[in-house]
Protein 1
Amino acid sequence: MSEMPETKRRFDVGLFDWIDASGAADLSEEYRRRFELVELVEEAGFYAYQVAEHHGTPLSVAPSANTFLSALSQRTSTIRLCPLVYLLPMHDPLRLVEEICMLDHLSGGRLEVGVGRGASPYELGVFGVAVEDSRAVFEEALDVLIQGLTTGKVDFHGKFFSYDDVLVPVRPLQNPYPPLWYPTISPSSVPWLAKEGFHTVYGFGFLSPTVEDTAAQKVAFDAAQAENAGVAGRLNGHVARPKFGLMRQIFVADTDELAMDQGREAFAAFYKSFDHLWAKHNNQRFPRTPDFDAYVAEGLVFCGSPGTVRDVLVGSVEATGADYFAGSFAFGDMPMERIRRSLSLFDAEIRPALDAVAASRAVAG
């Protein structure tokens, strides 16, 4: 059998980013570091750059994904750009329709759109949204978003949003609109997002469910996909094969000991930002001190030498059936030279094993 073409055997890998405070001298330097990072992964052939949205916390020092990705769109040419996610209850959905259309054109049709409702009561509260209303607000906002992107106008009257036949003269470059993502850690969300054809990542780094639970949800995802394939009215019906991905923080160094020492230090700085709002409100939902070693041992953070990380990452992909990996390579106060080395080791010694998984699956059909 002849070797499969390179494009047929690459395993899709993305870069996920909170853009959490790293201790850079100023925000300009923080953004320059991220620009350099995305340029590196684009050169390495990564599928997408995906950026979180957070407010009022050092967990994100780039709270406007549209502003950041607009700048990034002019420095890149091939990598897909994706807010993961737009927190819909915190946006005016009509304005968001307009900005998505603009960004799709600025990026040359490389935009992908993640949507979610938000999990932090403190961030939602800043925008006057009660946690108990967030699902209903999300659902209305999503309806407005899809209507505006699809038809070029919004005529909608709900409990939270109301518009009278508003024209949207800007249209998305991609038809009918950019691909949609809905990440989750909730099994109850899987049938809905699969029915609608969303791309997803199941898990958020160290908060991810177990490999066993993720594998079970991949089975449910595939079943719902198959049952609803070709059904008219799917939100993401223009996407032929929705992705089911894993997201993990990842750090690779030359030895396990060095990786653990350096990764533990950077993760502590990241976790301080992650826990900022919860600690400020004396909410005990998360422990005040992270157990980095336990997260690594449980496969919730990938950290170690190339061989160690390759084994756990490939093992997780094979066990779960995931066909996408979003790696958070920059977190906490990790110096740029360590991030570059981690990416270099990943690309040279780990990614080929992922590509082999993709090639094997392609042969198996």
Note: Confidence is low (pLDDT under 50) at residues 1-7.
Protein 2
Amino acid sequence: MTSTRVTLERIANDVVACERCPRLREYCEQIAREKKREFRDWDYWGKPVPGFGDADARLLIVGLAPAAHGGNRTGRVFTGDSSGDWLYEALHRNRFASQPTSVERADGLTLSQCYVTAAGRCAPPDNKPTGLELNRCQEYLEREIAALERVRVVLTLGSIGHERWLKASGWWSKLAPRERPRFGHGVETVMPDRIVLLASFHPSRQNTNTGKLTRAMWHSVFARARELVDAVTD
């Protein structure tokens, strides 16, 4: 087992054991007890959700937080909800995922050259973690960024994921406000360390059901990520 894989497993264990945010822990455990009628036979995960993917990833994807009946139910990031359906279909289409669906931790899905994580690790009420809660979670993203030394492309899903990657990577404090990469769908920025930062609207129902994010828009971002990863020579 590579040292990077060992490090990522340690981070994952620390994430799962985290108790830093009482409001979020109480909410996730409540959801796990009450469940959704559709999933009444499930044994909900109900704990913080770690990142998932290839220890040799070239592409890092940063989302917002697990969904109450998605990652909080299945225990894997972007798994078991509509956002995950959009994400893993696009990853499979562009040769980053072994299959186009992600329904549970034991479904056989593997990622190649890609690692998926989030700014927050617990499902928040109304999908809105507080700034303090995100600050408490930032250490885990910082550690993942440090461990994933081969990453050359970062795809941020939503403005919060975008801002939190900038903070966790250190660029938020290093760059003047006017120099910070702006968030916008399809916006591409080459960072000073030559990592390419891509931004996309988050595939939430709010965005996909209203047409703010279409399949064509979504697929174009992942096709670009594939091009950038394929162009990496080191």
Note: The mean pLDDT is 97.
Protein 3
Amino acid sequence: MDFDLSDEQRMLAESARRYVRERCSLEDKRALSRTADGFSRERWADFAAMGWLALPVPEAQGGLGGGPADMALLMEELGRGLVNEPLVDSNLLCGALLAHPRAQGRAAALLEGMVAGKTIATLAHMEGGDRSEYEAHVTTTARRSDNGWRLAGGKHLVRHGHGASCWLVTARVDGSDSLALFAVDRQAVGVALNSHLTIDGTRSADACLNDVAVDADALLLAPERVTTALEDALDRALLAHCAAAIGSMEAVMAMTAEYLKTRVQYGQPLARFQALQHRIAEMFVETDQARAALYRAIAAQEAGEPRARARVTSAAKWLISRAGLFVAGQGIQLHGGIGTTEECAVGHHYKAMVSLDKRLGDADFHLLRSSELFNPIAA
């Protein structure tokens, strides 16, 4: 893997860093968390204008064809600024499903709308009792009708469910064990949702599908293709969330180091106390190890071998989750009581790490997944 950035990648990272610094303050994040959507439509339009929404979409489908390294560079900067817009859930995760070579029906039209910023999609896969999208036990059903399909069931923790205009819903077809993927408009007749705030300031929804009628072209992926396409898309999204965590960890280190330099105790700055220097050093080591795990996962995803991609991505999630909680926790400790207040960003970074730890499977699940996929002979 080449660790040198291209000119385009440097421009991407620099523009994202500048945008986050100028347009994404902590005050804005706190205010947006109190809105119905939980994110800014104005920022979403900016993302479209800058090409970020097109970045993860293949060129053949009208996107920019950015790879895992490109998305990681962008997400690191967005994670540094605690940006809540659903770029990963919509254009990366759902975009990967819609861009699948065997996608059909409304897939191309939805993808075009997502690249332009006119459509926001989200995956509705988990159900009550499920721990993650990887472990979902789908009971939602899809029955054929004269004009298309009728969907019935419930979905749990639909990320940005209220703000999304379209849900990609998994359902079992005609009473079988086979999963298919359908497009459902959020405002369709028979859709009921209960939106709620999550710990990191984003919004999710629990949804009930009461015999929702959809047209025939709402079928996006036929049963025999959903499982592998879903796992690939989830791994891509997981890697992007890990990259955002790296940016968050580096932001915590920077603000903590600055606080220790300016906070005076016993006549001298806290940064002069050796015990606190050791804590900062430990935070740096954890962040550096996390970045190495991210790079390894990027290389595995670019190589394209599914088993190695899954194993290494899960290993990265486990390590980065643990490191992120440690770094953000130490940041709060070194800030003292002020670190727990709503006005201090370090506490919000800790909440983001708690959310990451449970997002798309917790650290324990991914530790087990990476070990089960590990073959010492093949490795």
Note: DSSP finds eleven helices and ten strands in the chain.
Protein 4
Amino acid sequence: MQTSHSQTRRIGALVAAAVLVVFGIAAAGQGLNGRSTVHDALVQEAVVGTPTMSPSVIAAEARKAGLTGVALPTCSVAGKQISSGADARCFAEYMRVDALMATGGKTYAQMPRFATKDGKGTHVEAQAMLGPDGRPMNNPARNVWVTATALSNALNTSYMAEQVSLFGIAVGGAFLLVGLALAAFALSGVRLPKASPARARQPEGAMS
């Protein structure tokens, strides 16, 4: 009877180990596939960092433009092809600084809605420049911000996708190792821990 119970526990352990191994391989495989997809998509866009995308150069450019109170990138992608999530995130940081220099340090919400002849812009429709159709012209600086934000979000999405893929690889590897360890214990004949039987109650009045 004891041998039968031991055999049953061993079979159960092997089944659990097999499930863990299969799940680990699948998770790691999906993670690797996702990381490869991010890499291929970035390479396909042929994005290359400009010469100004280094910490020292961008700091000088920001001072020249009078940009203050803005966190500057500490990474560098100058002259580098963007092929990883980390590079994409770095490129997006430089794009934001470039956009702020183009808009005088103002974000989309801080810029006037309409364009004016003096270039300062206005929120008052009656003071705005009129376009060929006779309608007030939108502030072109806002278009710069919208374009930069859209591209930055796409690059940051690549970074997040790569991080999720790496997490999937790590989780898959952990499940794989646990499954292999469990299978090794089961095959080696090591008894798996089990709940200890409850201690029998002593009859009342028994001598201690």
Note: The CA atoms of residues 54 and 76 lie 4 Å apart.
